[in-house]
Amino acid sequence: MLDLRHVVENLEDVRNQLGRRSAAHAALLDPIAELAGRRLEVIRTSEAKAAERNAASKAMATVADKSSAEFADRRTQLKQLSAEVKDLERSLSELQSEIDSLLAGIPNLPHLEIPDGKGEDDNEVVHVWGDKPQQDFEPKMHDDLGTALGVLDFERAAKLSGPRFAVLYGAGARLERALSQFMLDLHTTEHGYTEVLPPFLIKDSALFGTGQLPKFEEDLFKTHKGDPDKSYDLYLSPTAEVMLTNLHANEILEAADLPRTYTAHTPCFRSEAGSYGKDVRGMIRQHQFNKVELVRFCRPDESAEQLERLTRHAEKVLEGLGLHYRRVLLCAGDIGFAATKTYDLEVWMPGQDKYREISSCSNCGDFQARRAKIRYRPEPKAKPRFVHTLNGSGLAVGRTVIAILEQYQQADGTVVVPEALRDLMRCDRISSHQ
Fold it and tell me: What secondary structure does DSSP assign to 410-424, as a single string?
């Protein structure tokens, strides 16, 4: 969430920054500016009335004869002033709630370093690793390949759960498991992340903290609780970013404990509202998929470097698997709601003849920390400040399965297993008899 004081004091600058996302985003500031002006007037009036009330209270206390007309008049005046102060406080609370509701729907400000642009066509390729695999045959898409090998089954998945689900068998299931193990081992032993196994059902307050609520509720799966006494709703997690970031909600961390780094392997559930008709084939865009997530908490002056570090950690997974990819710096019109700067890692998919996002690594500045109230103390007894939060996929496991199937496929329809996974897979090739 943006800082209201910063917005009000730098209105035109903030409007211009949001305008880099789109004119519609800049227009979101209009009602906030008007409400903030009214809020300031109410605060001034309330403070003046409170001063009058306090003076009236002191004056009434000086009247010796409590049965006198003077005392009765002063008491009437005090009651009237007290009622006016309460009305103003009520008005201020209502205005603040309205402002907070509007602020909750405004995205983060794009970083000055990222390029202008409206969408993915305006993103900037900043790094390429490896070469496209040399395949002297027509490469298949992963769904055709996996179905022919007997490791992917979409028909039975639809029978169980409907469209946009998959069942993995045999070597396909082992590949998914091996990849998760490989990623977690790399991030914990070499990159120093603490592994976490969080709950997969999460409160609405946690989703608000990272920015999924209220704006993106249609993309979430909401549960129907049986306990009417609970004051919150539960949702299926769309990403472990939510749980890992909210581990420290409403906490004050010590500067000596930063950066804090966490990783988790969890299922992710997304309704993909509004995406029907796009990427319907195979495992590209599913309602349920597994992902290894990376989250970092740091001091504000360290977050730029921390984004580079987190992104390299995700890249190391792809390089360890020998998968050709590129790093893309997203433009202002393509970054996510909570992000100020984002790198996408896009892996080459030969069967689709295109690059596909496999990780999105973002610096969110203090945007999520302000919503979730995550602060740190720069030094003992110092006033707490908001931390900066960063997150990224390290990696989306299902899409890594797709990339391996497509980049490592052979002319005979088999798939070579990347060397880094062979001990975990207990084989060096996936063939139809597995």
Answer: -TTS-EEPPGGGHHH
